[in-house]
User: What shape does this take?
Amino acid sequence: MIVVALLIFVFLAWATWAVSVACYTSTFTDAADLTADPNYATVSGWAVAAVVVTSFVPFPFGYFAALVAWGVAVYGCLNLSSARATALFGYLAGWSVVTRLVILGVLSATAK
Assistant: This one.
């Protein structure tokens, strides 16, 4: 059961990152600077892994822990300006709420 939950959390964290990067790319027409960063693949992988670990922490503490993980990745590891980093972080924060609500919905539906 834990392996299934882990796979679901990996998918949701990866989807959160992918959708947020897609939103970021559509916001900035010259968004190539994000994926051109030589650390992009490593940073995104570590960020997703960190968020997966926080997924086991109950809401809302897990959500705030995920925000810390996203923030460290976006502000500390990617070479983005403050405005662009804030935009990407905003997308990540928003989509993280959606994924946490999905998790809560699934858990409440299976608990009945």
Notes: Residues 9 and 52 are 5 Å apart (CA to CA).
